[in-house]
Amino acid sequence: MLCAVYKTRKKEGMFLYVPKKEDFSAVPEALMAQFGRPELVMLLPLNKREALGRVDKATLIAALNDQGFYLQIPPRQEDWLAEHRSSLGLSSREETKKF
């Protein structure tokens, strides 16, 4: 199975996988509007890959077969400073002081 992988300029690390190059017919219009203009990253032969980066191969194949696309969302970035401030009972963001 071959799939096409596209990236967006709107969100770093977000990728859209579709079974055929330039075929976004199964992708909801609202998602395409949020994703923006897709930029082709690569054509990926799934049968020749044992593992994929951040995507579970079985999950990807199931999504491509069931819904016609797979959206890879970047992992949530941790904000250690905000977590530390919250643990101290402070606001997660430092308040700006007005003089």
Automatic annotation (TrEMBL):
PROSITE patterns assigned: YCGL
Pfam assignment, any one: YcgL
Sequence ranges assigned to domain YcgL in this UniProt record: 1-85
SUPFAM superfamilies reported for this sequence: YcgL-like (SSF160191)
InterPro entries (alphabetical): YcgL-like_sf (IPR038068), YcgL_dom (IPR027354)
Protein name: YcgL domain-containing protein D0Y50_12430
Species in which this protein is naturally found: Salinimonas sediminis
